[in-house]
Amino acid sequence: MSDVAKYANVSTATVSRALQHPESVKEETRQKVLAAITALNYTPNVLARQLRRMETKTILVVVPNIENNVFSQLLSGIDAVANQKGYKVLLGNINHKVDKIYDYLDHFRQRQIDGMIMLISDLSDHILQDLANELPLVITPDSSDDAIVPTVVVDNVGSSQRATEHLISLGHRRLAHIAGPLHLSSSKSRLEGYRQALHENGIRFDHELVKAGDFTIQAGFKQMEQLLLMEVPPTAVFCASDEIAMGAIKRIKQHGLKVPEDIAIVGFDNVKFSSIFEPALTTMAQPLEEMGRQSMKVLIDRMNGKTLSKNHFIYSADLIIRESCGAHLNKRE
Amino acid sequence: MSDVAKYANVSTATVSRALQHPESVKEETRQKVLAAITALNYTPNVLARQLRRMETKTILVVVPNIENNVFSQLLSGIDAVANQKGYKVLLGNINHKVDKIYDYLDHFRQRQIDGMIMLISDLSDHILQDLANELPLVITPDSSDDAIVPTVVVDNVGSSQRATEHLISLGHRRLAHIAGPLHLSSSKSRLEGYRQALHENGIRFDHELVKAGDFTIQAGFKQMEQLLLMEVPPTAVFCASDEIAMGAIKRIKQHGLKVPEDIAIVGFDNVKFSSIFEPALTTMAQPLEEMGRQSMKVLIDRMNGKTLSKNHFIYSADLIIRESCGAHLNKRE
DNA sequence: TTGTACGCGTTATCAT
DNA sequence: ATGATAACGCGTACAA
């Protein structure tokens, strides 16, 4: 930079200004500086700038597992607006080991990041709160409703209620639910939506018909097995994720039954493969990429010190009717 | 840091030494410093350290599209060893827009990254070469064989040959190939493997039986359509990716034919969903996570200035036999 | 073994 | 509108 200054016959301060606050510099000198810069092929040292400004223009995204399509879609949205706004995104794949979050927290303590988006909610509320007091933080897509931390979520209760009601409208009265890990609030909310749908339609809630595991294919397979063992198995199952739904369907087929003829299924997420699965999954589509974008936008506002009028952004999921629910067949009476 | 120094009655230099070169400091003073550090709850400012050392301990991973399971698996492996070795990984999702790579190159010019792993090979060889001269660079999993840049790849030719030979061994003589984008060397190599398998088994290579698109389900669907239109359609298809295979199978079913009875299919990648697809995909499994790990290891060596005896690391893919190839049925004669 | 002092490349403050 | 200078926090050459 001092070379540039010399070459342009100005001080380093002016060079800096020409780049940072072009309006505060005479057009003529600005041109001189610019010329010098290209002549010497100078690029600013961002490290020094960061040290001076105490900011990194970098955010950290903590993700439970990149290989899950849900998270990669969110990540994709986050990355898109981050780039557009000049932020870099640091990947924090904790691979389901919650403890690893603490390692990443050091990044912040050492001022290596300006903010953070968490794609996981396993942390207790007060830890999150402490964190949020220290640095700009946004949580998505799973968060308890009463969090004071800004969140971007889908209306899990309402969406699940609609999914369940769709099955009810198809004539089902004996509906099961395969939930995700019940310590996650999204799982709890989806269960709650299922329960409300039953309630409003005068169907008794039965504990036996609710199984919980994690969000994987394997869990769906295993929980469905339990359901099939019942004296009177359900005629429809609302699954808390598409992967669960796929696992469940696989198990049903193995049992010699058909989906949706014998048992109807609705999933959640609208994961990429849900449309080519057989039968194609009826599912609740979360606008994941959009939610990722919004998370980043909220975070940026936060980092810029804007006090937001709104802290929680709630999206609604779309019911995508395909084959696994049986809506395309004759309705039952 | 100066606070720590004061608290411990030493100079800042000693504090620094106590942390960087513990052996060059008396045990007693080291303890004093450590005590002061915990007492004041001091954490070093990494930015300043980086400025001083001119290194960031950060690498950039350029990925064509995070939502693709192949890349997220690689990323997962990269991230794992990066963390372990104290590196941060910056995500560069270019979303198939090759031009965006140039934006990321600025990160390097501005010394924001120490090295780079590219999960894409669309760049011409000499651009890559130029890049590699400027900074540590590793390319995976798609790269031309003659690249001077370090690469971590799968043996595409050999693997594809084995995949094709598997179909031949099942009695097929009229085999088609649906390739990926032919400007990618991995696509070219897979086509070459297919060709060699035919050649070595005395089967004439027929241009008509080779279709190319990209690696997506949609492409597989579309290319299979062409194949089905032929007067004598193939009895087996080797697909350059699992997604292509899924699309192709979908089209075949729509046509009223069965897989593998009427047409046998082999895919490539062993993507997560390939095992629950119906029929379950026979495919070539790349050790993607391991390849990601290896890429990061090679990059670290590079960044440490080690001259590697070996620049190209070639993994072999495993043939995973499931249902889509028909091996579980009676063999044809 | 430890302290002094400089420099890494910027940017902000204060003068001019 | 511009220049001189201090400061960001650390690591290291040199001196002691």
Written description of the protein model:
With 333 residues, chain A is of the alpha/beta class. Chain A is 44% helix and 16% strand. The first copy, chain A, contains twelve helices and twelve strands. The longest helix of chain A has 16 residues, at 69-84. Chain A is elongated and about 90 Å long. Chains A and B meet through helix 4, helix 5, strand 2, helix 6 and helix 11 of A and helix 4, helix 5, strand 2, helix 6 and helix 11 of B. The structure holds a DNA duplex (16 and 16 nucleotides).
Radius of gyration of chain A: 26 Å
| Helix-strand string of chain A | HHHHEHEHEHEEHEHEHEHEEHEE
Class per helix and strand makeup of chain A: alpha/beta
Mean pLDDT of chain A: 92
Q: What coarse outline of chain A follows from CA principal-axis ratios? A: elongated
Helix content of chain A: 40-55%
User: How would a textbook summarize the main sheet of chain A?
Assistant: 6 strands, mixed
Q: Between the first and last Cα atoms of chain A, what is the distance in angstroms?
A: 79 Å
Number of strands of chain A: 12
Strand content of chain A: 15-25%
Q: Largest chain interface and its two residue counts?
A: A-B, 46 and 46 residues
Query: How large is the count of helical segments of chain A?
Result: 12
Largest sheet, spatial ordering of strands of chain A: 7-6-8-9-10-12
How would you describe the oligomerization state of the chains in this entry? homodimer
Poorly predicted segments of chain A: none
